[in-house]
């Protein structure tokens, strides 16, 4: 129950939702660039502030949310999201409009999320993946729409299998999952359009 | 008279969320048309309801909005939409391209190069570039799914067979990021090169047809052509009659019923900025007394 007691939604839903959306929009339009998510809300653990803000800004009764076991295990978190957004919490990740992975160590690929179809590639999951830290230097090299040339991205901790999953995700374009990496109040976008390669020497 | 109270930027929050999610998917799949539940707006279809819904969904209190109609800040459509957002969102507005954070446009891209962080919102009448070649949505959807765009090349080839050159001058089809065929909206093909690797985010809203699509910054936007008939932009024989600008898109203005006419910048902000800086065309108004000494260049 502690999660609900210590959590609160937006103070000013109209403007904070707008600011949060714009951060997500910039994040996906310029993949790899860190964007600040400013609303000061009390995020229920294990959600980080930007994760909670993104879900409150973008989710509603039309968008099923899938939570990873670590988040589901937290008493009251699902109730917090249901109350704040009206979104159904689903057990099947392939039905989810939004997926939330709070425990990056348990990351096991993108295949089980909705990938969209060739006719409707937009019908795919947007996955929020929480990590400890994001940096403008690091093992990942990004290129593609939204990036002039190349851009680097560091993700801490290193997530086994993430690079391969991202490469496979891009390979399927225009189908695929769109990622929002969150660390604290920072969000970085990795849409399916971004080509991601891992530089082993930097690890 | 009491003014009705609207939510910020007119649309209700659930509608904004739905449109915002469509915008995010559109950005993630550059050039793909995302269906969305377009709402009735207090203006008729065809007057920019798609662009207005996109603008209303992205606009924040700190934004500075510019609205142009065929490059002009002062025509009916532009003035009405600017006033609409002044009234419902209370945002600052401008006519200066460089000062705007969000620019809603009908059928032009400003001459001043757009900067990183700016958002250009296009009003789109027919989002489907293949629609006049294939009326069935089920078929055009399959063509996009399979990236089967031969039909459009046939259309451009027929232009060449009939006219000796590609006669399409506006809504000239482009390939986005090497995957999706996209209608750039009825902008003159003169503006197509400005879309290529633009620093600004470009969003497209079609209200009646209920589609949103996007071109992220720094994205390849290539106009379709043939090796022996490369894409070319329109050329003008004379500079702007008011500001003397060359290499810009000009509108023809009929002056009388004896064949008199002039060509002036379609981008009014660009033209006024140049005139304020002292540039004069052949038909510019006489130099004001205070500005004596400047001469036409």
TrEMBL record, chain A:
Protein's recorded name: Phosphonate C-P lyase system protein PhnH
SUPFAM superfamilies hit by this protein: PhnH-like
Pfam annotation, one family: PhnH
InterPro entries referenced in this protein's UniProt entry, alphabetically: PhnH-like_sp (IPR038058), Phosphonate_metab_PhnH (IPR008772)
GO biological process entries: organic phosphonate metabolic process
TM annotation in the entry: none
Natural source organism: Prosthecodimorpha hirschii
UniProtKB/TrEMBL annotation, chain B:
Molecular function GO terms recorded: 4 iron, 4 sulfur cluster binding; alpha-D-ribose 1-methylphosphonate 5-phosphate C-P-lyase activity; metal ion binding
GO BP, one annotated term: organic phosphonate catabolic process
Enzyme class: lyase
EC number(s) per entry: 4.7.1.1
Region ranges (Disordered): 276-297
Reactions that this protein is recorded to catalyse: alpha-D-ribose 1-methylphosphonate 5-phosphate + AH2 + S-adenosyl-L-methionine = alpha-D-ribose 1,2-cyclic phosphate 5-phosphate + methane + 5'-deoxyadenosine + L-methionine + A + H(+)
Keyword field contains Lyase: yes
InterPro entries cross-referenced by the UniProt entry: PhnJ
UniProt key word Protein biosynthesis: no
Keywords, alphabetical: 4Fe-4S, Iron, Iron-sulfur, Lyase, Metal-binding, S-adenosyl-L-methionine
Functional note: Catalyzes the breakage of the C-P bond in alpha-D-ribose 1-methylphosphonate 5-phosphate (PRPn) forming alpha-D-ribose.
UniProt similarity note: Belongs to the PhnJ family.
Protein name: Alpha-D-ribose 1-methylphosphonate 5-phosphate C-P lyase
Organism: Prosthecodimorpha hirschii
